[in-house]
Design goal:
Largest sheet: 7 strands, parallel
Number of strands: 7
Order of helices and strands: EHEHEHEHEHEHHE
Mean pLDDT: 96
Strand content: 5-15%
Oligomer: single chain
Distance between the termini: 52 Å
């Protein structure tokens, strides 16, 4: 039986690059998105043209009532879940100083980015545990966080808090699920060329020119997807709870 991967936010940006990479690796891909299928039709057709078998589910991952449906529909369609990539995430609608940030913005960002990751992982892990062992592990979970898990941005504090929380969730689930032969990883992108970074392109262009990134270029969604692909393979069987920085070396502390 072919293995199946769920990718949240899998219809565009980093998520689509991950969906395509895992599809090329031989996975059947369930793409979860918040918009109607038509919004991602061009990307879904691209998967079809590559011979990748996919299924689209419209759901708000921040609404925990949808998680059972995502798992159930995936199992009904493809028979099981072998990979979960928690990629769906949002930035604040308005970048506000920490002293002005509103409760509504804080709740929205953490509901989708952190709460959604926590409880969809819980639902998917329980399904993985019910499945027979296939190969050398029962499943893989990859959480897409951000360099903002450690790098402070005082005008989007809610985003930083949500990504720092994802880092802790990765370690918690890694410890809990290792005995079940389910491995959990965190991929931490830096400045990646997506819709989320369009509005601050000039700022990041300047930082790249100033040498803030040892690899002096923008990251591409494919850079993140390649890391996810490697972690979902059988090449990291004695590794769990780890962080892979995909940030051009931005995390390196220098004097």
């Amino acid at each position: 039986m072919k293995k199946t991967a769920i990718v949240t936010g899998g219809g565009r940006g980093i998520g689509f690059a991950v969906s395509r990479a895992l599809g090329k690796d031989g996975y059947q891909v369930v793409i979860v998105g918040s918009s109607r299928r038509e919004a991602y039709e061009d990307h879904l057709r691209e998967l079809d043209s590559l011979g990748i078998v996919s299924h689209y589910i419209q759901a708000d991952v921040g609404d925990c009532q949808t998680h059972g449906r995502i798992v159930e529909e995936t199992v009904q369609t493809f028979g099981g879940i072998h990979v979960l990539v928690n990629n769906a995430g949002v930035a604040p609608n308005v970048r506000a100083d920490l002293l002005e940030m509103g409760e509504e913005s804080f709740d929205r960002v953490l509901r989708i980015n952190l709460k959604g990751t926590m409880f969809l992982t819980q639902a998917a892990a329980k399904q993985m545990m019910r499945q027979p062992l296939e190969g050398k592990k029962r499943g893989t979970i990859v959480n897409i966080s951000s360099c903002s898990a450690e790098v402070v941005s005082v005008n989007r504090g809610e985003y930083c808090v949500s990504k720092a929380g994802i880092s802790m969730l990765t370690q918690l689930y890694a410890a809990r699920l290792a005995p079940e032969q389910i491995l959990v990883h965190e991929v931490r992108p830096g400045v990646i060329r997506t819709d989320m970074t369009k509005g601050v392109g000039e700022k990041y262009d300047r930082l790249i020119q100033e040498g803030r990134f040892p690899i002096a270029r923008w990251g591409e969604p494919e850079d993140v997807a390649d890391a996810v692909s490697a972690l979902c393979s059988d090449r990291f069987l004695y590794t769990t709870g780890d962080v892979i920085d995909v940030d051009g070396g931005f995390h390196i502390k220098q004097l």
